[in-house]
Design a protein that fits this description.
The chain has 91 residues and is an alpha+beta fold. It has a domain at 25-86: Roll (Ubiquitin-like (UB roll)), CATH 3.10.20. It has helices spanning 14-17, 47-53, and strands at 28-33, 37-41, 61-65, 68-70, 81-86. The chain has a 5-stranded mixed β-sheet, with no helix packed on it. The protein is elongated and about 55 Å long.
Amino acid sequence: MATVPNAAPNAVGTAAAGRDDRPAPPPVVVRLQPEGETRTFDRVNTALQLLNRLGLLPTMALVIRNGGLLTPDVRIRPGDELEVRRVTSSG
């Protein structure tokens, strides 16, 4: 059997061993308006994914971060505090 120089004899990552010592990223906090409900999500990648998890279409709600509107393709970062405001129309 050939030996590979500088190869780790048994390279098993800590995640594979179940001992990942890194702290979990902070959750995304979402305030739903007009309901006033607050929800948290551990993993959300985009504004569209957030709306999908809430059961909403992009035409049904606005996603707001720091006073600015997010388009569906904008990435959500761990620890973001967002507001999801349902769009209502009357006529």
